[in-house]
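anyone seen this seq b4? input:
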Amino acid sequence: MRLTLLAAVFLLAACTSTPEAAPETTQQAPTTVDQPAGTGPNCANANSSVVGKALGLRLQGQRETVDKAVTTCTYVGSGMPVEVRFTTNATPATVAGAKPEGAKPIEGFEDEAYEATAGGSETTQHTVGARRGRTLVEVRSPAGVEPSKKLITDLFSRIQQ
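predicted toks r here
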């Protein structure tokens, strides 16, 4: 009986003790931001309707994340993922760092541009990137190079530089 009473007191004490607080972290996660259209490189200028129409894909929604100079727009749709990425204050060095392995230059398109293809016949993903001035726009989708170039041209006309 005495052992049972001691065990009960111990369990009660364990349940009512104050737990130690978890250490605080200072890591900042990318933020999701709503920005009005026409105020620069953002997902409001690259909404799912604009992107889907240019690429010939049915896209339903989008999510925007901002991490310093990079704004990434991710779209929901059937099949492979679609992503548009804006990088501000881009330089030729920025473009060189953004290119996927095996990327080929696209001559005569914007200030500089590249394209790359990855995956198999049913999972092909195309990446097309182009820099105009200090803005780099990259499109990653199952659509081909020409629809991606059309979208990039449209996006550059929508954003104020």
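The longest strand covers residues 59-67. The radius of gyration is 24 Å. kinda curious what u guys think
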